[in-house]
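Narrative summary of target 7.
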Amino acid sequence: MDKLPEFADKKFLVVDDEAFMLSMIDRMLKQVKAGSIVKATDGGTALRAVKDNFTQVDCIISDCNMKPINGLQLLRGVRMGLNPNIPRDIAFIMLTGHGETELVKSAIALDVSGYAVKPVSLEKLAHTITQALKKTCDLKEPEYYKGVKLPEIQSGFAEDQSSPKAWTILPRASPFKTNTALKDKIEQFKKEHATRDGEGDIKIKNRRQCRVNELHEGQILAEDIEAEEGVILLRKGTQLTKGMINRLRELATDTQADQSVWVGELAD
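Modeled conformation, tokenized:
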């Protein structure tokens, strides 16, 4: 592995509403000797985080899918100059999930400095930061950015309701403790995700096991996931969303279980 660059003279603002991702990017930045790291959990908080010259940053690294202010809205606000303490041409890196082509197109229209697909490696993040800091932003008038149409971004469980296969998550034959609180949580999941069933046999290729903390949006489940008592919580062929992954990690934390699930790709 080539020697990683160091950013000891740079200040970063990292924005993500998922604690796991926020912690992971923070850890990576420390590995490349970041000068300082400020963290925020949504776009609105990020815009307010830079208050003066003492809190100024050199680069913003933001997730795209957040509430109430998502990453595209944050990028647009920066380019419009909504916070005069944040330079309109600041280096801005967007973190996206697999398959989020429309989001990337909108980010490019808003003059994003770079983007990386999650889960991002340390090497990829370091390279993206290097390129973003070198890139010159050809700024346009604020009215231009205001007029850029942004695709609707949903987070949490809103998008899950329309899935033809979605239940939620617990591995078959798992060591999860079936205490009352956990059973209540499973019932809550079933109500949130219950939709039609019987989609027929789904063919999956390139199957592999993936640990809970390595899952990312857009992955396809290669097997049904069941509760300990055999209730199907998430169907084979379901495309994982951030909400689903967050709940899986929550369950694994509750039960102190290091779980893995099977993922793959839809066969043609």
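Residues 113 and 132 are 5 Å apart (CA to CA).
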